[in-house]
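Changelog-adjacent note: as of this version, every example in the card shows the full chain rather than a window. The one below runs 194 residues end to end.
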Amino acid sequence: MPSRASRVDPRIRRARVEVFGAELDLLTRAVTISWHRPSKPPLVVGEGTWIPLPEPMGDLRGRLAVEGVHRRTCALLEYQLARGNRNWTYESGPWILAEAAARDAGLDGLAAGALRKVLWLFYRNCWPLQFADGCGWGSGGYAPLIAAALADPAHMRARWELLILTGALRRPAAEGDLERVAGDPLGEEFYAAP
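Full-length structure tokens:
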């Protein structure tokens, strides 16, 4: 008897972090969080919505708005649900336009380059969404960052370099490398559709 190939629904994303799992429907933006117990069926512990970041991130990154689930668990699941665009590299992606806009606005080359690195590393290394506004993917895009850098260039450049050196404050600055922009390699699931 021929076996039926299971179909994967392209609008559904799934993530698993420790004992918690998430299922996201990109069409309805509904998300279900479940607790996976050994030898028992999963228990639904929360339902909520997916709030995508503004374009160009769109559905590549987003927040989980789920009541009753610890914020850290939601953050870990958000990281697992993140996706990438195969066409984006450090040399081609929305950070190129941001760097050009920063230079056109009057930022010096070092500050504009730091903005480009922050945007790229936020995307490439799936930095926590608490840094979305500070990395140019908030509701105001990168325009507020450029304005802040023009108002106080030394302060903003120091903030961006701190984020770059520490991997969004996830490791000590001594381990960081300002020139390393490629990021850690991500698995194929990062580029999986959708």
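Structural remarks: The first strand starts at residue 12 and ends at 17.
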